[in-house]
Each structure stands twice: as structure tokens, then as C-alpha cells.
């Protein structure tokens, strides 16, 4: 049976809680950093991007000014490491989950609660799941294209996305690599892998897991990846004009 990406949006209830001054200052600093990066062409942007934009959590990196790659952001057994809160404070408003149903304890149901604690309007939050089996490839190239369509939609709206799997290594690296190609940041998959390698060296778990993506087939998938047919044929431009 063909997998259909699941889209879920957090509760639209709002909170009257005011954000902390530290959270507001962090957001202001991030926005300043992002403006600096947006002013540069992709080829002129420093690598790793953490040279300008600080990472929200140790095992994360900025693939683009609007796209964060990271490990699974929820650790209910260790509430003293609020990774999810750190992402929200960094401006992440769209979460793209590559894990399978039942693989880990879900966090999408508690997004509203975390937003309320931080004074964030929960109606701004989007959660998408595009399941890929651990250490494997997507079930089809079209499955990957659907992930990229979601990233493209969010980028067009100026939203910050976080893409993650379990460890942020294999599936996440594969999606990031394909996005770098599809969005034109990288000229091809080989260059995309080179960009990821530079970013990955700055991640905390790099010494334990020296490469991202994780498996040979995942590397090959990125290296040989071709942009979405929409990007090649101009279909995307027609869709935008009709919208």
C-alpha cells in the first residue's frame, strides 16, 4: 500500500502568556543573522552557516537560513533538555518528521502545550510526517518530491522549517541533500553532499557518526538526485501564477 504523507496542524488555541525577554532577544538575534545570510548569494554564504546563525541544539545545523536539520526534538524521559522548546525559540514553526508511526514517542500532540509555555501562537505551528524507514531510502522518488514540495511551500511563505528523523543523520541528511539540489543551492548532488559534510563537522555527534547521510545507498540517492519535474518544466511557475 502506497504511503500518503500525513499532515497535522497543532491546535489553533492561543495563549495570553508573554514571551520571556531572553526568548525575544534570541529571536531578534536570529532574524538579524538570517537577514545577513539572505543578503548573500548561496555561493557567498559561509559554511558552516553556524558561523553566523547559532544552532538551537548541539545536534543540529542550518542547511539554509530557513531550514534546520536536527535529531528527534522530544525527550520526554529527560524534561531538563527541552530540545523542542529550543527549536521554537529559534523561530521554527514547521516541523517535518521523517520517522515512522510508532518508532518514537510522538511530540506533535504536545506542541500546543510547549507553545503556550513560550507565549507562541499555536495557530502558527505546522506538523508534517513523511515516514521513511530508518537507514533506508524513500519508497519512491515521488515520495521525496512531496517532502520537497512542502519545503518549497514553507520557504515561499518565509517560514523556518526543522527536518528531523531519529538521529538527524541518515534520513535527514538525505532530505537536506535533495533539497539543496532542488532549490538550486547546490548545482548537483555531489556538491550538496559536500555542503552537508561541512555543516556536519560542526555537529556534536560528528565524532561518533562521522558521515551524513548514514548509508551508501542514501549517499548515492543524493548524488544522483534530479530536481523535481516541476522545477525543470516551469510547472511551478504556472501554479504560482494561478494561485
Structural description of this entry:
With 243 residues, this protein is an alpha/beta fold. It has a single domain (6-242), classed as Protein-Tyrosine Phosphatase, Chain A, CATH 3.90.190.10. 39% of the residues lie in helices and 12% in strands. The chain is built from nine helices and six strands, in the order βαββαβαβαβααααα. The chain has helices spanning 21-38, 83-89, 111-118, 141-156, 170-182, 189-200, 216-223, 229-233, 235-242; strands spanning 6-9, 60-64, 67-70, 92-97, 126-129, 160-164. Strands 1-5-4-6-3-2 form a six-stranded mixed β-sheet, sandwiched between helices. β4, α3 (111-118) and β5 (126-129) form a beta-alpha-beta unit. α4 crosses α5 (170-182). The longest helix has 18 residues, at 21-38. It is globular and about 45 Å long. The chain starts with 5 loop residues before the first strand and ends with a helix. Mean pLDDT is 85; it is low at 1-20 and 236-243.
Q: Tell me the strand percentage band.
A: 5-15%
Instruction: Name the quaternary structure.
Output: single chain
Q: In the CATH hierarchy, what is the architecture at level 2?
A: Alpha-Beta Complex
Considering DSSP H and I runs of 4 or more, what fraction of the residues is helical? 25-40%
For the CA atoms, what is the radius of gyration? 17 Å
SSE topology string: EHEEHEHEHEHHHHH
CATH topology heading: Protein-Tyrosine Phosphatase, Chain A
Summed up, the domain count is 1
Give the mean pLDDT. 85
What is the global morphology? globular
Largest sheet: 6 strands, mixed
- Uncertain residue ranges: 1-20, 236-243
Name of the CATH first level: Alpha Beta
Keywords: Hydrolase
Organism: Hebeloma cylindrosporum
Biased composition (Low complexity): 11-23
Protein name: Tyrosine specific protein phosphatases domain-containing protein
Amino acid at each position: 500500500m502506497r504511503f500518503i504523507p500525513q499532515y497535522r496542524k497543532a491546535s489553533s488555541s492561543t495563549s495570553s502568556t508573554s514571551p520571556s525577554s531572553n526568548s525575544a532577544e534570541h529571536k531578534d538575534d536570529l532574524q538579524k543573522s538570517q537577514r545577513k545570510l539572505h543578503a548573500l548569494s548561496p555561493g557567498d554564504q559561509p559554511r558552516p552557516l553556524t558561523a553566523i546563525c547559532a544552532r538551537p541544539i548541539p545536534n543540529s545545523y542550518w542547511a539554509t537560513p530557513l531550514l534546520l536539520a536536527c535529531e528527534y526534538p522530544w525527550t520526554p524521559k529527560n524534561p531538563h533538555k527541552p530540545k523542542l522548546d529550543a527549536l521554537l525559540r529559534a523561530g521554527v514553526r514547521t516541523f517535518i518528521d521523517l520517522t515512522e508511526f510508532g518508532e518514537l514517542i510522538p511530540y506533535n500532540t504536545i506542541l500546543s502545550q510547549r507553545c503556550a509555555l513560550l507565549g507562541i501562537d499555536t495557530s502558527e505551528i505546522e506538523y508534517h510526517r513523511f515516514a521513511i524507514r530508518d537507514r533506508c531510502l524513500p519508497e519512491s522518488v515521488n515520495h521525496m518530491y512531496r517532502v520537497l514540495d512542502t519545503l518549497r511551500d514553507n520557504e515561499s511563505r518565509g517560514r523556518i522549517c526543522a527536518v528531523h528523523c531519529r538521529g538527524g543523520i541518515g534520513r535527514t541528511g538525505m532530505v537536506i541533500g535533495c533539497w539543496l539540489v532542488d532549490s538550486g543551492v547546490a548545482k548537483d548532488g555531489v556538491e550538496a553532499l559536500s555542503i552537508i559534510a561541512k555543516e556536519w563537522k560542526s555537529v556534536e555527534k560528528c565524532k561518533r557518526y562521522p558521515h551524513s547521510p548514514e548509508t551508501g545507498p542514501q549517499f548515492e540517492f543524493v548524488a544522483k538526485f534530479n530536481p523535481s519535474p516541476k522545477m525543470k518544466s516551469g510547472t511551478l511557475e504556472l501554479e504560482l501564477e494561478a494561485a
